[in-house]
Design brief:
The chain has 263 residues and is an alpha/beta fold. It contains eleven helices and nine strands. The chain has a six-stranded mixed sheet, with helices on both faces. Strands 5-7-8 form a three-stranded mixed sheet.
Length: 263
């Protein structure tokens, strides 16, 4: 069983991460189901727009560290390398699927969007957030680097200085700050987020499908032309970091709720 709800109604495909007990962190099964929904369900000719959200007051806190910690230790370096590659392939596949979909994708963000959750939100074409939402590149807190294209998606929107503060210092950005910086489209009271996203989704679903597809493709080409290079840089760096002692210490510190002691 996966933590992803899938529903199609009047041309609107809703993909809702449903793991509230883990603040919608993505375990392996849920990430796989998410990618499959984006590469199969979303390509149904009936689908005119995709809406991505989360349950329980959170969007997604990225990869599930509990799921990672529960995996048995690799038998050797080759297995460790293969696991790291599989992890990066999964993250990149998910983000690419959102960006490359021929229909518009709308993110409804409430509560935290952290780690890969930031990448998922920013890969969407339109991003609406509740007032309690915030965006957090928490990778360095566990000895990793930004991935999922966030090393490109964030600075492309907010500039190098703000992106450095988010990535190097893991400083959260509130919904209001994200809107002011041009990272998202609109901030709404929590109770109004769903209605606003539904209104936007219905408008897109009624729109000219091919014209929207070509418009999305043109905008992506002009603003994210360096995505391939960014994903490759992230993959190379992250493969190294996933097998480093600092990541093991970072995960242990999170689980023990203590400050990590990096080497």
């Amino acid at each position: 069983m996966t933590g992803l709800r899938i529903g199609l109604d009047e041309g609107i495909l809703r993909l809702t991460i449903d793991r509230p007990e883990r603040m919608n962190a993505l375990d392996g099964a849920t990430a796989t189901a998410f990618s499959e929904a984006l590469t199969k369900d979303a390509l149904d000719p009936q689908v005119r727009v995709v809406v991505i959200g989360g349950t329980g007051g959170a969007f997604s806190t990225g990869a599930d560290v509990v799921d990672i910690a529960a995996a048995p230790p690799p038998a050797n370096q080759a297995e460790a390398d293969a696991r790291a590659q599989q992890t990066m392939d999964g993250a990149n596949r998910l983000v690419r699927a959102i960006i490359e979909l021929p229909v518009p994708v709308v993110a409804a963000v409430s509560g935290p969007a952290a780690g890969l959750g930031v990448s998922i939100a920013l890969a969407c074409d339109l991003v609406y957030a509740a007032e309690d939402a915030y965006f957090l590149l928490a990778f360095t807190n566990v000895g990793l680097m930004p991935d999922g294209g966030s090393s490109l998606l964030v600075p492309a929107a907010v500039g190098r200085a703000r992106a450095n503060a988010m990535a190097l210092l893991a400083e959260p950005m509130s919904a209001a700050e994200a809107f002011a910086a041009g990272l998202i489209n609109e901030v709404l009271p929590a109770g109004a987020l769903g209605e606003r996203v539904d209104k936007v989704a219905r408008r897109l679903a009624r729109g000219p499908r091919r014209a929207l597809e070509l418009t999305k493709r043109a905008l992506t080409a002009s603003t994210l032309s360096l995505l391939d290079e960014a994903l490759e840089r992230e993959a190379v760096g992250q493969r190294e970091l996933l097998n480093a002692p600092d990541f093991a210490e970072g995960i242990a510190a999170v689980l023990a709720r203590r400050r990590p002691e990096f080497s």
